[in-house]
Amino acid sequence: MTDSASSAVVGPNDVPRLVSARIATFLKVLRDNAFAVGPSEGQDALTLVTSGYAARPSLLRSAFKHLFSANKADWEKFDRLFDAFWLRKHVRSRSVATGSVANSPSVQGLLSGSGKEQTSGSALMDEILTESGTDHEGAGEGRMEGASAAENLVETDFRKIADPAQMEEAHAVAAQLARAMLIRLTRRDLARRHGYTLHLRRTIHRNISHGGVPISLVKRQRKEKPLRLVVLLDASGSMSMYTGVFLRFIHGVLDTFRGAEAFLFHTRLAHISDAMRDKNPARALDRLSIMAQGAGGGTKIGESLETFNRWHVQRVLHSRSCVMIVSDGYETGDAALLGREMARLAKRCRRIVWLNPMMGWQGYMPEASGIKAALPHIDLLAPANTLRSLADLEPYLAKL
Amino acid sequence: MPLSREEIAERLAEAGYIADDELATAIAIMQLLKRPLLLEGEAGVGKTEVAKALASACATSLIRLQCYEGLDQSAALYEWNYQRQLLAIQAHQGKDASQIEDYIFSEKYLLERPLLAAIRQDNPPVLLIDEVDRADEEFEAFLLEILSDFQVSIPELGTVRAVSIPHVVLTSNGTRELSDALRRRCLYHYVDYPDIERETRIIMARISGASATLSLQIARMVEKVRKEDLRKVPGVAETLDWAAALVGLDVSDLHDRPELVHETLMCLLKTHEDKTRMTREVTERLLGRVA
Q1: CATH number of the domain located at residue range(s) B5-77+113-190 in this protein
Q2: What is the ipTM of this complex?
């Protein structure tokens, strides 16, 4: 990529090759920091340099900032990168804040807490890889007792799956399930496709050959928005046995549902859709593990929902959205706050589904303080401890 | 002839828009590189105003395309005038079919919509594509095509090439994430709430009769209000409403009429929840911190 960029940059003759080479290197640095910049941006950067924007560093920075940024996250971190590269202030090989996830204040909090300890990018990567090698997904699986037959996998509580291979299979089924749900939802849409108002433009166009007499009619139907699924996953200690499977489920959902979004919460809320969609698997792991710090501790559902309502709702939810909260409802924060935030959330979306893995347990009653406070605002409270229970949700989602 | 940054800032100010240095740079680059400018920011920070002021600063016309869900090619680009075409068909009955077709698919029956109109002007206009995040993804892809080639192909007429390249300004509120391709094509500028100094200048420029001290007080007060935990943070438009209300009520110093300040806060607060949160005590506390 560097080669193509530099060859494109070396264009006008009056610019010393040195400058073009520097710009090409800068582009490389930006790309490493998840900026979407290509040769055409390099060319334009050169135009800026030759048109007098290099007179003062602050002017060049401002000009480059507009050219290279593509979103707010880029916008906010650009100055630092520019200073590091061109003015040699506090050089760091690789910025931790990648992608637009840095947008959310909660993530920023996590990042600022964790970013300082890292010395180099490669050391960080090793650490993550070893971590994922052990039990990044199937948290706690090794500790569980009892095995079950593979054919019964669908009916088996996730806690009771001991064999890593079986767990892997369960993960795959969860991802598949997410896809299957989408296919059935779209088919249902197709069957209903007949319009109810006349599409005048098309009708006239088609009937020109009849001298404008409308013989064959074209109808139109309001375009149906696809269902948008927003998943909020509890990653606290009490949920650790289920987190892995649901992460795979979310992965499947994000892959197939258009515009689906996923968040992870424990004591804070983190937006994980971008990280999970990242095409570069190493970077995806990198980002996810940074956000997962603090997972396995207590749960502040109320506070996390407050963050969600304040910073994400506007962008993430529309009228045909379903919010799926996966949590056991053990709230370590303020239950009254949870109730309030649930009420706010209920106003903004079509349905709230609360999946509670513990409901599958025998003799379970929804008595945790959190779930009690949330109960009045939930449209569907369902167990989610087996794959079957996830599959059972599909007809419900289809009705939205 | 691209204008320098200082000239741009000056001309925008004449048009009633107080720009910061970065925005002036953005506009200068936009004219130099002929790239569209994408403005993002909270609602009410004056994104649309930038385009309006730019049009008046460049002494050119403003063509506005308001995006909404379901916006399609026929509303954005061009449409045939069907009623007249039908009449023409009836009127020319008996003539050769291909002749009629040529006739009804001519310029005469073409209705220009904003995008087509923008590329057919002799004097490059400012094309404002407002709230592009509200349009569908398909439309965004189509827009990308127009913005890179500046040509439109109409099946019945052929390709229409741009007479002049318009200055394109896109705005987005962030209700939907825009595609990377569109973002890459554009220059990016994040419009933030103005700082106290700039907001004071904005009030003085826009509200005749607002004194320097009152404007400063209003700007300071609004800045404090923005820091409160509100559901709808007041934008510049709200500030101007409030300033106009205060000037209209003959307030020359906020400290003279604290009760009036509280009562007119409805210009800033737009939800019931925010209203109840902003009690008289809170207003007085904030007012006390405004020098």
Answers
A1: 3.40.50.300
A2: 0.80
